[in-house]
Batch of 2 targets.
Target 1
Amino acid sequence: MRAVSPDHPDHFREKRARALRISRTLAATYPDARCGLDFENPFELLTAVILSAQTTDARVNQVMPGLRARYPDSASLAAASPESLEKLLRPLGFFRSKAKALREMAAAIVERHGGQVPQEMEALTALHGVGRKTANVVLGECFTTVGVTVDTHVKRLAWRMGLTASRDPLQIERDLMQLLPREEWTPFAHRIIRHGRQVCRARKPQCDQCVVRGDCPRVSDP
Ligand code: SF4
């Protein structure tokens, strides 16, 4: 018997059904999965996501109240003195480069967008320090979802679960967007991130305790 091509419609349909089952199972397992960053508006979320590089959401949440009190909007942040801003960001590490990124991002929002966070992927990713992953978080949480956030957990788990054959974040995003309905894109990423932190860790995934093991080729393949 001839092997079925991975591109065969039947194979794709099966994969889409499996992706949806995984998403639903994880939804039941982590009903409170959501963005771990505290924010009150799109500008704060954009700021927080930029600050979350190389640190934890919890640490970012600790510095956000001080940042919010001192620099409540893009105009005040763009005009911040580097020294004062760096002092506030010091607990996060890489505080000089993060302070510079925030000031440049805020200045661009003031100059190009009248002080408001833009709502388009292209305009967001044109801002200093904002990549597609950051833009997807902001759009998914505050505006209109246009993609799937692909961070290190989504990248690793999508691969292990056989939902992509690529290691490239943009291709992984495209693959997941094809497999899942739009309304699942943002919550799916939150669930996967939680599962990646708690069970399907980079080293030693706990497959024997995994709720989606029946749908994961890493375990279920003969
Ligand atoms: S079965 Fe193992 S590899 Fe697959 S998702 Fe679960 S923990 Fe990860």
Target 2
Amino acid sequence: MQKPTTLSASQLLLSYAYEETWYRGEEYADKKLARLQKYDTKSVQAKVSGTKSYEVLLRFAGSSVSRECSCPYVGGDVCKHMVAVAIIWDEKRGLSRPTHEMVAGETITPPFISMTQITSAYKNPLTCDLEIVRMSASERAAESRAHLRLPLRPPFLNDSEKAVSLSETKRAFREISRWTMREGYDQYYCGGEVVAAFCEVLRSVLRREKSSQPKIIADVLIEAQNFHETLLNDLVDVRDGIEIFGSAHMNELYQLLDREIKKMNSADQIYVEKQLAVFDDRADLI
Ligand SMILES: [Zn+2]
């Protein structure tokens, strides 16, 4: 008889698995979906059948477990099949599974947002969930620095019935600028929050555009362009190309004005055309 080892495979896998995956694995173990084909104190070979059947191989290697599974799971290092096999293998050797407290404390904390969500936001800057823009820097970076959490948006009306004013817009942008002077502001980690707040203001402008004076909207567009330029030059780290979010919203406002020009009275037409030309000139320079 071999001397039983005290190493617990499930405990060693715990810190490489997501909590969600872990509990799926426990379910598989409880439903007896994993069948050990060959095992000793060092390694185990098993078949796990769920919707399909997969082969799992676990082996103690020093103080860790080397692991293989034939499933296509790419969501992490440890799949539910490995978890199921580790639990059953341990139980055969008289070791109980990790407690709920251990699972809660030692499994990997899933990211709040995924790379897929970030990629999709960059593809749809105009309609994306701005929360993803706020958090993308922290998710992309290898390590996160403690940083300030900024407000979601500066005070700015969001009621489609209310006309936009230029002074209200300037006030909102000044408020965003003030956030960047707070202690703990980080151009990279807080940059997404600043850009998201800028986009929130423009989304409100877009919503209120129909109730507003075309000339005022044209002025707001120029004001937004100036402020966005300041953001990119001095206040936000743009290494991830985060400027596309603000640009997309300004372009949308531009297109909206451009489409409505024909319906405006001639004084408005002349003024709006002039401001759109100013916007074009500046956009070429940036
Ligand atoms: Zn698997």
